[in-house]
Amino acid sequence: MSFSDIFKKNDVNGAGCPDVPVTKIKDDRFNVGPYINGLSSFILSCDTPMTISIQGDWGSGKTSMMNMIEANIKNSVYPIWFNTWQFSQFSLGNSLAISMMDVLLQRLIGDSGKLETVLKGVWGLAKNVALTATEITVGSRAAGKAEEAMGGTFSGSYVKEILALKEQFQKAVNEKLTETKRRRVVIFVDDLDRLHPAKAVELLEVLKLFLDCENCVFVLAVDYEVVTLGIKQKYGSDVDAQKGKSFFDKIIQLPFKMPVAQYDIKNYVRDMMERMKIAVTENNVNLFSSLIRTSIGLNPRSMKRLFNTYQLLDIITNGAVKNIPDNARQRILFATVCLQMSFDVLYNYLAAGNIDLETLKDLSKVTGGTVQNFTLRREMKNDNGDMENTGKNILDEIFDRDDFSPETMPLIQRLPKFLEFFLESLTENDGDDLTKTEVRYLQEIIQCSAVTSVNNEGPDDAATESLNNRRANRRLVVETNDVLKKFGLNEFVVYQSKNRVDGILESYASGYTFLKAKDHEYKLQYDVDNAGRFGISVNIALNDPTGYKKGRAEIFYQIFGENPLGYPDLRPEKDEWGWYYYDNMLTVTEGDPNAPNQIADLVRDAYTRLEKFLKKLNDRN
Q1: SS3 breakdown of the chain: % helix, strand, coil, rounded to 5?
Q2: How far is 185 from 171, CA to CA, in rounded Å?
């Protein structure tokens, strides 16, 4: 397919989702109308002065919320906007707060002569604004720290000048409302949470000191956490949390938290799917919405970034992957991007080549559950006396304990539910079993998706090699056990350790069974360990499962002697837990289709030797 064909197919002239706030209520795609109407009614009817904080994470839609409020009330109020982010890009030093007053007064006072008189007072008081405001809102102790930091001497005479300036501001507000026949002035201050927290606090101090006037409502985009951090940064860490809360409560009369968790994203998802020429069916809309909700969450900025990443990869995979129907390619690709952006450890694990039916079936056992069984797992001795983790599922193999920090746990807790929708995206019809063809689709798409990975380093080479070896070793044990079943022996169980060396999972896998002598059981085990290009080594081990009990190992060794399996010219090693190790009994070539048969022959011979030894032991007793 030529570039011009791809260009036409993807309509790239309209590609991408710019991070532009919503400006009109009709463009609301998250059904936040009830919140817009409620805040608008409150602004029009509340007592004044009133200050409202719009709180939420970056990209949660605070600017869009304020835009829609303004659009809803603009015929009844006189709105003024001040974007702190734009002004903070200039070298304004400590005068950002005064610059804000400059802008507001210019909007209120049209007469240049009057404006010049008022502004002279503003700039003359610039140095002492923060000191007086801090005295009022936090207390004299913090004001003293501010005075010391600014190198000035605090003078009570400034209070009279401040009050006079506040009267002038009140007069300007009243005159503007009379002139425009509006009910009140509403001042929107955006992007306060993008400022250095101490700067944000300075702006709030100015608002409280100068602009707390009748017929004024302030709508501020600022978080409580930003304010409390700013108080500590500006006035010292000994300003306790209660003082910070008092400051916030004194300035903010109505805190409003963005209702992100209540966003109805289906309309937004449907619109984006139509734009990007994804099949818009009710099932697809529900699936895509669920993938978003359980991965990146409902932050609008994150969703725009998700769709931008998807759109780029859609163009790439359209030309790079072969023989995948468009519907399947787009559905699997979208799920892969959600995985990549939110669960990078799992994404890197799959991208390292660990995509097969067995892996995906193991992941399906995690869906719908919780992560408690592996986040709260305990170390304990198993039947062999070895220390191992009690939580045994594929997530133990993928994640390290360090991944489950308090910061990452809320995201990790969403993983089981996300996996349910991720695996659903791989199949054409919900409930169908995965096929090898669908596994191939995922393999090809993940290979193409790495170009947009936020983790430039990618999966660690050593960790990746270990994970690949673990999978190869486990598959070989499973295949060997299948061969052993044909010999009529006791059933062999697959085992793989969850122990880590230098943070990397051990790669060997084992198959084991038990044989009885009198009323006691003994374990026969074989280990396969991938040694890279040198091939896979096979060991035979014999164990008394009660060997970790005090004195039991010594008794075991006395009874079984130096070479219980009777291999000529070969003596096993022993340890304190009641194990005999016959190392490097066999080396097989990785990928050799006859390897399971070779290993099974070795194990059957060891099994026969142990049976003979135990028979002699029974006869002696």
Answers
A1: 55, 15, 30
A2: 12
Q: Would you state the torsion angle of the CA atoms of residues 14, 17, 19, 23, taken in this order, to the nearest 10 degrees?
A: 70
CB neighbours of 205 closer than 8 A, spacing ≥ 6?
Answer: 97, 129, 130, 133, 134, 137
Burial label, 308 (beta-carbon count in 10 A; 0-12, 13-18, 19+): middle
pLDDT surpasses 60 at 123 = no
**Quick one: which of 352, 314, 351, 354 has its CA closest to 334?**
314
Local structure of 358: helix, strand or coil:
helix
* Sheet bearing 509-517, strands edge to edge: 493-495, 509-517, 520-530, 536-543, 579-588, 573-574
- Nearest CA to 52 among 296, 265, 248? 248
Tokens standing for residue 440: 């191939």
pLDDT in tens, 401-438: 556 666 667 777 788 899 999 999 998 876 678 888 99
Give the whole-angstrom CA distance, residue 477 versus residue 27. Answer: 58
The label of the residue with tokens 């010049």 reads 116
Residue 80 corresponds to which amino acid? Answer: I
Count of C-beta atoms within a 10 Å radius of residue 219: 25
* Burial class for 211, CB neighbours closer than 10 Å (0-12, 13-18, 19+): buried
Q: How far apart are CA 452 and CA 317, in angstroms?
A: 12
Count of Cβ atoms closer than 10 Å to residue 594 Cβ: 9
Q: What is the pLDDT of residues 78-95, one digit of tens each?
A: 999 988 776 665 544 556
More confident residue, 57 or 567: 567
Compute the distance between CA of residue 153 and CA of residue 151 in angstroms, rounded to an integer. Answer: 7
**Torsions phi, psi for 459 (to 5 deg):** -65, 145
pLDDT of residue 4: 43
User: pTM of the predicted model, to two decimals?
Assistant: 0.65
Strand 216-221 and strand 184-190: the pairing is: parallel
462's tokens:
């050593």
Report the chain's C-alpha Rg in angstroms.
35
Strand 379-381 relative to strand 387-389: parallel, antiparallel, unpaired?
Answer: antiparallel
Q: In the prediction, which pLDDT does 98 show?
A: 67
Report pLDDT digits (tens) over 319-369. Answer: 888 789 999 999 999 999 999 998 888 888 888 777 888 888 888 877 655
Q: What is the dihedral of CA 476, 478, 483, 486, to 10 degrees?
A: 170
Measured CA to CA, the distance from residue 200 to residue 84 in angstroms comes to 9
Structure tokens at 582: 């016959």
The phi and psi torsions of 422 (rounded to 5 degrees) equal -60, -45
